[in-house]
Amino acid sequence: MMIKKHLVILFLVFFSLFAQSQEINWTTDGLAYTKFKDGNIVRIDPKTNAETILINREQLTPAGMNVLIPESFAFSQNGKQVLIFTHSAKVWRKNTRGDYWLLNLTNNQLHQVGKDRPAQSLMFAKLSPDGKKVAYVSEHNLFVEDASSGIVKKLTTDGTRKIINGTFDWVYEEEFVCRDGFRWSPDGSKIAFWHIDAGKIRDYYMLNTTDSPYSRIIPVEYPKAGESPSPAKIGVVNVFSGQIRWMNIEGDPGEHYLTRMDWVSPGELIVQQLNRKQQECRLIYCNANDGSARTFWAESDPAWIEVPDDISPWKFINKGQDFLWVSEKDGWRHIYKISRDGKNVSLITKGNYDIGEIKAIDDQNSYVYFTASPKNATQLYLYRIKYDGKNNKDDAELLCDKKLEGTHVYDISPTAKMAYHTFSNHNTPKLTEWVSLPDDNPVSKSRSIVSNLRTDKNINVEYIQLKTEDNILLDAWIRKPDHFDPAKKYPVVMYVYGEPAKLVTDDEYGEHDSFLYDGDMSADGYVQVAIDNRGTPALKGAGWRRAIYRKIGDVNIRDMANGFKKILELPYIDKSRTAVWGWSGGAASTLNLMFMYPELFKTGIAIAAITNTLNYDNVYQERYMGLPQENMDDYLKNSPVSRVQGLAGNLLYIHGTGDDNVHYDNAEQLINALVANGKQFQFMAYPNRTHSLKEGRGTWEHLSKLYSNFLRQYCPPGGR
Questions:
Q1: Burial label, 390 (beta-carbon count in 10 A; 0-12, 13-18, 19+)
Q2: Which of 164, 571, 583, 671 gives the lowest tally of CB atoms within 10 Å of its CB?
Q3: C-beta neighbour count of 165 within 10 angstroms
Q4: Is the pTM here over 0.90, yes or no?
Q5: How would CATH label the architecture of 461-714?
Q6: Residue extent(s) of CATH 3.40.50.1820 domains in the chain
Q7: What are 26's strand-pairing partners?
Q8: For 430-454, what is each residue's pLDDT tens digit?
Q9: For residue 17, is pLDDT > 80?
Q10: CA-CA distance, 426 to 460, in Å (whole number)?
């Protein structure tokens, strides 16, 4: 089936799935979406669920091969071609390396892009704005290929494992969410790209000791706390001549990070730069033709500057004359309107509350949509507010149904005309609906959330606030066991995280039961608890979040312990059967709680913990702990390995030997410290497993049984 030209143009995909964080692949009109279904690429109208085949399976089947299974796809701006990503492989966290195919919808020809490159080696392929070329990264170099002839030009030649063009090293990906490292200019004549020099970054050597008689070394360029950053620079390459112009950005590249970059016009880039401590942020315009650079906006924070996951944190409005920017400079996470030259600044969201993130911009009507929760930090709602200065009131407009208390997640179309809305809370299973904007009305009453609302009566969860002896008010939840008898005493299990990367008290369905337990904890008779301390990313003001600065392992542990003391005051809690557990940062919290408060916690299970804060990467640790060269004592005294002498309870420690995130050296240093102090414990190493411990046949089932059996043995379930 050939697709008519006008139909394809009408239903262009705004941008590809692999280049965005949204789950919905919206059409450019913002009224429909596209997806791969039953071998075809189809357009779906959310109002009617009517499907139109845009590309059929015959068009997606190369000669002599099976039909392609797109993992993402992107149409050219003129609608004449579609670029398809398939056969992917994981690069650290996500499947960003694979094969690309280009389908010409005019002549129905399908051919593989970069066919002479190694299989599964292409990354982040993108069509030029005019659809005549495809650019991609392969083996750390940047290539451009003519869409018609297939002629390939290699734009960079120095790429190696340590010299990286167009993508990033491990730490940029992990901590700044930087993966796709190049951008086409609006006129398609140039490509701007990151160049990372990891040559001076020392390798951490992981060992594969199981797949052959001799061990195999797996090196990871990994800058640990105290090591200088990988020098980064921005280049602009002319795709016709191959000439590269480097941007002359002020500052030592070995003491700064370049965290975001994009084009603002055919000849100008905007770049975000952070200093090494991540306390100073500068926005810089770079002239793509001569490389000159000038800072037009700067801000600082005595602790750290947040870098949002959004690849373009500046949101240009008013035909590029202004942009919206999120800052915490007044103590709250607010939206500001800033003129293009940085000279005029207006606060848009006024009041003592944080926004979560900007979700969409309606530039035609001067509205910005954002998430926030001014009254309850465990929940999340959608708001909007005018940014043109013509608003008669400063209050943001709540769009969610006030009766639906909990967590609202919105995926909004690029034109802000429609959204996919998800809602749940602790005892309301997740429901979804399509809504029109700006009225936030469901497109179908019968398929609306309100019409299908139901409560899970098996979830006995209560949200509470705990005031500690330090006069700190902590959010927490308690899940009582099934068939709860207030006359009995029950064991309590607390799940923890406690660091700036995650919350554990979100009011969402499915967040109130151990995902590792082999069985039903509530049915077995456990009380389950979670508490969020200062330093977690709750929408409670910058002061709440920054309280942990240089005090990871200190203020967060004290808050959790003091909150747990309040839990132990409940008459139905058995103080002799108390357990705590966590993963990664939560495992570090678990260890510190076990070592510092043995009178509170009798049993602990820690998985993949940072046991020595000097072992983790420089971007994360130096952001929250400062430079170890300046405050080494904060690192040493707050690391779990420094506190093992306090262990008095039952400890199970678990780690994967192939963990590229929290390295296995953390496990062995902890073991050495426990042994040296005569402490008995149980330990499990999973060979070659990464931080998620999901690789290998039977791994997850084994882990679940190990966790559950240990808990049942040392913190027996049931009321007494």
A1: exposed
A2: 571
A3: 25
A4: yes
A5: 3-Layer(aba) Sandwich (3.40)
A6: 461-714
A7: 33
A8: 999 999 998 889 999 999 999 999 9
A9: no
A10: 9
